[in-house]
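Aggregate trends can hide what the representation actually does to any particular protein. The sequence in question and its C-alpha coordinates are set out directly beneath this paragraph.
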Amino acid sequence: MLQPYNSVEWFFTRFQNICYNKYCLLFKEAHVLKIGNVELSNRVFLAPMAGVTDMPFRVLCKEQGCGLVYTEMVSAKGMHYQDEKSTKLTLLDEREKPGAVQIFGSEPDIMAGVAEKLNASDAGIIDINMGCPAPKITKNGEGSALMKRPELVERIVKAVVRVSQKPVTVKIRKGWDECSINAVEIAKIAEACGASAVAVHGRTREQYYSGKADWNIIRQVKQAISIPVVGNGDVTGPREAKRLFEETGCDAIMIGRGAQGNPWIFSRILTYLQTGELAGEPTAEVKINTIIRHMNMLIEHKGERTGILEMRSHIAWYIKGLRDAAHTKQKIFNMNDKEEIINLLQGFLLRQQCREQE
Protein backbone atom coordinates (compact mmCIF):
# COMPACT_ATOMS: atom_id res chain seq x y z
CA MET A 1 0.00 0.00 0.00
CA LEU A 2 1.36 3.44 -0.90
CA GLN A 3 2.10 5.72 2.05
CA PRO A 4 0.47 9.19 2.07
CA TYR A 5 2.80 11.92 0.83
CA ASN A 6 2.91 13.56 4.29
CA SER A 7 3.01 10.43 6.43
CA VAL A 8 5.74 9.69 8.98
CA GLU A 9 6.68 6.59 6.99
CA TRP A 10 7.08 8.64 3.79
CA PHE A 11 9.40 11.16 5.44
CA PHE A 12 11.44 8.41 7.11
CA THR A 13 11.87 6.58 3.81
CA ARG A 14 12.80 9.85 2.06
CA PHE A 15 15.39 10.62 4.78
CA GLN A 16 16.90 7.15 4.40
CA ASN A 17 17.14 7.61 0.61
CA ILE A 18 18.87 10.99 0.93
CA CYS A 19 21.36 9.65 3.50
CA TYR A 20 22.09 6.66 1.25
CA ASN A 21 22.56 8.90 -1.79
CA LYS A 22 24.94 11.16 0.18
CA TYR A 23 27.03 8.08 0.94
CA CYS A 24 26.88 7.06 -2.72
CA LEU A 25 28.01 10.56 -3.77
CA LEU A 26 31.09 10.31 -1.55
CA PHE A 27 31.80 6.85 -3.03
CA LYS A 28 31.33 8.12 -6.58
CA GLU A 29 33.68 11.06 -6.04
CA ALA A 30 36.43 8.60 -5.19
CA HIS A 31 35.82 6.39 -8.23
CA VAL A 32 36.19 7.09 -11.92
CA LEU A 33 33.03 6.97 -14.02
CA LYS A 34 33.13 4.91 -17.19
CA ILE A 35 30.58 4.98 -19.97
CA GLY A 36 31.27 1.85 -21.93
CA ASN A 37 35.03 1.87 -22.39
CA VAL A 38 35.32 5.67 -22.04
CA GLU A 39 36.84 6.81 -18.76
CA LEU A 40 35.79 10.28 -17.64
CA SER A 41 37.62 12.71 -15.37
CA ASN A 42 34.51 13.63 -13.35
CA ARG A 43 30.72 13.43 -13.26
CA VAL A 44 29.70 16.96 -14.27
CA PHE A 45 28.77 17.19 -17.97
CA LEU A 46 27.81 19.88 -20.49
CA ALA A 47 24.42 19.22 -22.10
CA PRO A 48 24.04 19.35 -25.90
CA MET A 49 22.37 22.64 -26.89
CA ALA A 50 21.65 23.70 -30.47
CA GLY A 51 23.29 27.02 -31.27
CA VAL A 52 25.27 26.99 -28.03
CA THR A 53 27.58 24.01 -27.59
CA ASP A 54 29.79 24.52 -30.61
CA MET A 55 33.51 23.77 -30.47
CA PRO A 56 34.72 27.09 -28.96
CA PHE A 57 32.20 26.98 -26.11
CA ARG A 58 32.90 23.30 -25.42
CA VAL A 59 36.63 24.04 -25.16
CA LEU A 60 35.95 26.85 -22.66
CA CYS A 61 33.81 24.52 -20.54
CA LYS A 62 36.40 21.76 -20.73
CA GLU A 63 39.05 24.20 -19.48
CA GLN A 64 36.84 24.79 -16.44
CA GLY A 65 36.85 21.08 -15.63
CA CYS A 66 33.77 19.78 -17.46
CA GLY A 67 33.89 15.98 -17.38
CA LEU A 68 32.17 15.37 -20.73
CA VAL A 69 31.05 17.73 -23.48
CA TYR A 70 28.38 17.06 -26.12
CA THR A 71 28.16 18.53 -29.59
CA GLU A 72 25.09 20.34 -30.81
CA MET A 73 22.58 17.80 -32.11
CA VAL A 74 23.47 16.60 -35.60
CA SER A 75 20.91 15.58 -38.22
CA ALA A 76 21.42 11.95 -39.22
CA LYS A 77 19.66 12.68 -42.50
CA GLY A 78 21.97 15.62 -43.09
CA MET A 79 25.02 13.42 -42.64
CA HIS A 80 23.45 10.64 -44.70
CA TYR A 81 23.06 13.03 -47.62
CA GLN A 82 26.59 14.37 -47.04
CA ASP A 83 25.55 17.83 -45.88
CA GLU A 84 28.79 19.66 -45.10
CA LYS A 85 27.31 21.75 -42.28
CA SER A 86 25.98 18.66 -40.48
CA THR A 87 29.27 16.81 -40.81
CA LYS A 88 31.22 19.81 -39.50
CA LEU A 89 29.16 19.75 -36.29
CA THR A 90 30.70 16.37 -35.42
CA LEU A 91 34.29 17.65 -35.39
CA LEU A 92 36.03 17.65 -32.01
CA ASP A 93 39.08 19.61 -30.91
CA GLU A 94 41.93 17.76 -29.24
CA ARG A 95 41.35 19.85 -26.08
CA GLU A 96 37.80 18.60 -25.57
CA LYS A 97 38.30 14.86 -25.87
CA PRO A 98 36.73 12.55 -25.01
CA GLY A 99 33.58 14.17 -26.35
CA ALA A 100 30.14 12.92 -27.30
CA VAL A 101 28.51 13.48 -30.68
CA GLN A 102 24.72 13.66 -30.48
CA ILE A 103 22.68 12.57 -33.49
CA PHE A 104 18.95 12.83 -34.11
CA GLY A 105 16.61 11.08 -36.51
CA SER A 106 13.79 8.54 -36.68
CA GLU A 107 14.92 6.04 -39.32
CA PRO A 108 16.90 3.12 -37.86
CA ASP A 109 18.85 2.40 -41.04
CA ILE A 110 19.94 6.02 -41.50
CA MET A 111 20.84 6.37 -37.81
CA ALA A 112 22.90 3.18 -38.00
CA GLY A 113 24.63 4.33 -41.19
CA VAL A 114 25.66 7.58 -39.53
CA ALA A 115 26.88 5.77 -36.42
CA GLU A 116 29.00 3.56 -38.67
CA LYS A 117 30.49 6.66 -40.32
CA LEU A 118 31.30 8.07 -36.89
CA ASN A 119 33.42 5.00 -36.09
CA ALA A 120 36.21 6.78 -37.98
CA SER A 121 35.66 10.08 -36.14
CA ASP A 122 37.17 11.49 -32.94
CA ALA A 123 33.89 10.98 -31.07
CA GLY A 124 34.32 9.09 -27.83
CA ILE A 125 30.58 8.46 -27.41
CA ILE A 126 27.56 8.47 -29.74
CA ASP A 127 24.44 9.94 -28.13
CA ILE A 128 20.92 9.55 -29.53
CA ASN A 129 18.62 12.54 -29.08
CA MET A 130 15.18 11.57 -27.79
CA GLY A 131 14.61 14.74 -25.80
CA CYS A 132 14.53 17.76 -28.13
CA PRO A 133 11.11 19.47 -27.79
CA ALA A 134 11.40 21.84 -30.78
CA PRO A 135 8.36 21.61 -33.10
CA LYS A 136 10.53 21.53 -36.23
CA ILE A 137 12.10 18.34 -34.84
CA THR A 138 9.09 16.63 -33.26
CA LYS A 139 6.81 17.19 -36.28
CA ASN A 140 9.07 14.77 -38.15
CA GLY A 141 8.74 12.17 -35.40
CA GLU A 142 12.26 12.91 -34.12
CA GLY A 143 13.64 14.12 -30.78
CA SER A 144 11.20 13.75 -27.90
CA ALA A 145 8.47 12.52 -30.29
CA LEU A 146 10.28 9.17 -30.29
CA MET A 147 9.15 8.65 -26.69
CA LYS A 148 5.62 8.14 -28.05
CA ARG A 149 6.86 5.13 -30.03
CA PRO A 150 8.75 2.70 -27.75
CA GLU A 151 8.91 0.08 -30.49
CA LEU A 152 10.76 2.55 -32.75
CA VAL A 153 13.09 3.48 -29.89
CA GLU A 154 13.99 -0.20 -29.63
CA ARG A 155 14.72 -0.50 -33.33
CA ILE A 156 16.85 2.67 -33.41
CA VAL A 157 18.96 1.84 -30.36
CA LYS A 158 19.50 -1.76 -31.50
CA ALA A 159 20.52 -0.62 -34.98
CA VAL A 160 22.98 2.00 -33.73
CA VAL A 161 24.52 -0.24 -31.06
CA ARG A 162 24.95 -3.07 -33.56
CA VAL A 163 27.26 -1.07 -35.84
CA SER A 164 28.89 1.41 -33.47
CA GLN A 165 32.40 0.84 -32.17
CA LYS A 166 31.77 3.64 -29.65
CA PRO A 167 29.58 3.47 -26.54
CA VAL A 168 26.02 4.52 -27.38
CA THR A 169 23.97 6.62 -24.97
CA VAL A 170 20.43 8.00 -25.08
CA LYS A 171 19.06 11.34 -23.85
CA ILE A 172 15.36 11.34 -22.98
CA ARG A 173 12.73 13.39 -21.15
CA LYS A 174 10.23 12.53 -18.44
CA GLY A 175 7.72 11.76 -21.18
CA TRP A 176 5.72 13.43 -23.93
CA ASP A 177 3.20 14.98 -21.53
CA GLU A 178 1.81 14.39 -18.05
CA CYS A 179 -0.51 11.70 -19.44
CA SER A 180 2.39 9.69 -20.87
CA ILE A 181 5.21 9.58 -18.32
CA ASN A 182 7.36 6.74 -19.68
CA ALA A 183 10.99 7.64 -18.96
CA VAL A 184 11.47 4.41 -16.98
CA GLU A 185 10.05 2.30 -19.82
CA ILE A 186 12.24 3.99 -22.44
CA ALA A 187 15.34 3.75 -20.22
CA LYS A 188 14.77 0.03 -19.75
CA ILE A 189 14.42 -0.44 -23.51
CA ALA A 190 17.65 1.50 -24.09
CA GLU A 191 19.53 -0.65 -21.57
CA ALA A 192 18.13 -3.89 -23.00
CA CYS A 193 19.22 -2.82 -26.49
CA GLY A 194 22.82 -2.22 -25.40
CA ALA A 195 22.96 1.48 -24.50
CA SER A 196 25.84 2.34 -22.16
CA ALA A 197 24.10 5.21 -20.31
CA VAL A 198 20.86 7.20 -20.22
CA ALA A 199 20.47 10.92 -19.54
CA VAL A 200 17.11 12.08 -18.20
CA HIS A 201 15.73 15.62 -18.38
CA GLY A 202 13.09 15.94 -15.67
CA ARG A 203 10.50 17.72 -17.83
CA THR A 204 7.97 16.51 -20.38
CA ARG A 205 8.04 17.67 -23.97
CA GLU A 206 4.83 19.61 -23.25
CA GLN A 207 6.71 21.66 -20.64
CA TYR A 208 9.60 22.52 -22.97
CA TYR A 209 11.83 24.36 -20.42
CA SER A 210 9.08 25.87 -18.28
CA GLY A 211 8.05 24.93 -14.77
CA LYS A 212 10.20 22.87 -12.44
CA ALA A 213 12.18 19.78 -13.42
CA ASP A 214 10.94 16.60 -11.73
CA TRP A 215 14.00 15.06 -10.14
CA ASN A 216 11.90 12.20 -8.82
CA ILE A 217 11.66 10.71 -12.32
CA ILE A 218 15.47 10.71 -12.50
CA ARG A 219 15.57 8.79 -9.22
CA GLN A 220 13.01 6.28 -10.57
CA VAL A 221 15.10 5.69 -13.70
CA LYS A 222 18.24 5.25 -11.60
CA GLN A 223 16.49 2.62 -9.49
CA ALA A 224 15.16 0.81 -12.56
CA ILE A 225 18.35 0.27 -14.60
CA SER A 226 21.95 -0.72 -13.94
CA ILE A 227 23.79 1.40 -16.54
CA PRO A 228 24.88 4.95 -15.58
CA VAL A 229 22.10 7.55 -15.31
CA VAL A 230 22.80 11.23 -15.94
CA GLY A 231 20.44 13.72 -14.26
CA ASN A 232 19.48 16.92 -16.09
CA GLY A 233 17.30 19.91 -15.26
CA ASP A 234 17.40 23.02 -13.05
CA VAL A 235 21.07 22.86 -12.03
CA THR A 236 22.12 26.51 -11.95
CA GLY A 237 24.88 26.36 -9.34
CA PRO A 238 26.91 24.20 -6.96
CA ARG A 239 24.21 23.71 -4.32
CA GLU A 240 21.66 22.48 -6.86
CA ALA A 241 24.26 20.15 -8.34
CA LYS A 242 24.89 18.50 -4.99
CA ARG A 243 21.17 18.22 -4.28
CA LEU A 244 20.54 16.53 -7.63
CA PHE A 245 23.16 13.91 -6.82
CA GLU A 246 21.83 13.39 -3.29
CA GLU A 247 18.12 13.31 -4.11
CA THR A 248 18.31 11.02 -7.13
CA GLY A 249 21.43 8.89 -6.70
CA CYS A 250 22.31 9.63 -10.33
CA ASP A 251 25.80 8.76 -11.56
CA ALA A 252 26.47 12.12 -13.21
CA ILE A 253 24.75 15.45 -13.81
CA MET A 254 24.33 17.44 -17.01
CA ILE A 255 24.32 21.25 -17.10
CA GLY A 256 22.38 22.98 -19.87
CA ARG A 257 21.08 26.55 -19.59
CA GLY A 258 23.01 27.04 -16.34
CA ALA A 259 26.22 26.99 -18.40
CA GLN A 260 25.14 29.64 -20.91
CA GLY A 261 27.54 32.56 -20.48
CA ASN A 262 28.87 30.70 -17.46
CA PRO A 263 31.57 28.11 -18.23
CA TRP A 264 32.84 28.66 -14.66
CA ILE A 265 29.86 26.72 -13.33
CA PHE A 266 31.86 23.52 -13.83
CA SER A 267 34.86 24.53 -11.73
CA ARG A 268 32.57 26.01 -9.04
CA ILE A 269 30.51 22.78 -8.84
CA LEU A 270 33.59 20.58 -8.70
CA THR A 271 35.12 22.70 -5.94
CA TYR A 272 31.91 22.55 -3.93
CA LEU A 273 31.51 18.79 -4.34
CA GLN A 274 35.12 18.12 -3.38
CA THR A 275 35.63 20.65 -0.56
CA GLY A 276 32.23 22.05 0.42
CA GLU A 277 33.55 25.54 -0.34
CA LEU A 278 31.41 27.85 -2.44
CA ALA A 279 33.78 29.64 -4.83
CA GLY A 280 32.88 33.21 -5.77
CA GLU A 281 31.43 34.29 -9.09
CA PRO A 282 33.92 35.46 -11.74
CA THR A 283 34.66 39.18 -11.73
CA ALA A 284 33.48 41.53 -14.47
CA GLU A 285 37.06 41.64 -15.77
CA VAL A 286 37.24 37.85 -16.04
CA LYS A 287 33.90 37.82 -17.85
CA ILE A 288 34.86 40.50 -20.38
CA ASN A 289 38.24 38.90 -21.08
CA THR A 290 36.51 35.55 -21.61
CA ILE A 291 33.94 37.13 -23.94
CA ILE A 292 36.71 38.58 -26.12
CA ARG A 293 38.57 35.28 -26.20
CA HIS A 294 35.35 33.39 -26.95
CA MET A 295 34.55 35.79 -29.80
CA ASN A 296 38.01 35.37 -31.31
CA MET A 297 37.65 31.58 -31.12
CA LEU A 298 34.24 31.73 -32.80
CA ILE A 299 35.52 33.99 -35.59
CA GLU A 300 38.46 31.66 -36.20
CA HIS A 301 36.10 28.68 -36.27
CA LYS A 302 33.23 30.14 -38.33
CA GLY A 303 34.46 33.36 -39.93
CA GLU A 304 33.90 36.94 -38.76
CA ARG A 305 30.36 37.49 -39.99
CA THR A 306 28.90 34.27 -38.56
CA GLY A 307 31.12 34.39 -35.48
CA ILE A 308 29.93 37.87 -34.51
CA LEU A 309 26.27 37.09 -35.22
CA GLU A 310 26.38 33.99 -33.02
CA MET A 311 28.45 35.69 -30.33
CA ARG A 312 25.75 38.26 -29.66
CA SER A 313 23.60 35.79 -27.69
CA HIS A 314 26.63 34.54 -25.77
CA ILE A 315 27.56 38.11 -24.77
CA ALA A 316 24.02 38.72 -23.49
CA TRP A 317 24.31 35.62 -21.28
CA TYR A 318 27.80 36.54 -20.03
CA ILE A 319 26.89 40.07 -18.91
CA LYS A 320 23.42 39.31 -17.54
CA GLY A 321 23.10 40.66 -14.02
CA LEU A 322 25.80 43.33 -14.43
CA ARG A 323 24.87 47.00 -14.31
CA ASP A 324 23.84 48.52 -17.62
CA ALA A 325 23.75 45.04 -19.21
CA ALA A 326 20.44 45.57 -21.03
CA HIS A 327 21.59 48.81 -22.69
CA THR A 328 24.96 47.30 -23.64
CA LYS A 329 23.30 44.19 -25.07
CA GLN A 330 21.02 46.35 -27.21
CA LYS A 331 24.02 48.16 -28.67
CA ILE A 332 25.94 44.95 -29.37
CA PHE A 333 22.98 43.44 -31.22
CA ASN A 334 23.34 46.26 -33.74
CA MET A 335 27.10 45.85 -34.24
CA ASN A 336 28.89 43.78 -36.86
CA ASP A 337 32.52 44.81 -36.32
CA LYS A 338 34.75 42.95 -33.88
CA GLU A 339 36.85 45.95 -32.84
CA GLU A 340 33.74 48.04 -32.28
CA ILE A 341 32.34 45.35 -29.97
CA ILE A 342 35.65 45.06 -28.08
CA ASN A 343 35.79 48.83 -27.54
CA LEU A 344 32.23 48.81 -26.23
CA LEU A 345 32.99 45.92 -23.87
CA GLN A 346 36.12 47.60 -22.55
CA GLY A 347 34.12 50.76 -21.80
CA PHE A 348 31.47 48.62 -20.16
CA LEU A 349 34.14 46.97 -17.98
CA LEU A 350 35.61 50.33 -16.99
CA ARG A 351 32.19 51.48 -15.78
CA GLN A 352 31.76 48.28 -13.77
CA GLN A 353 35.15 48.79 -12.10
CA CYS A 354 34.42 52.46 -11.31
CA ARG A 355 31.15 51.50 -9.66
CA GLU A 356 32.88 48.81 -7.59
CA GLN A 357 35.16 51.51 -6.15
CA GLU A 358 32.31 53.87 -5.25
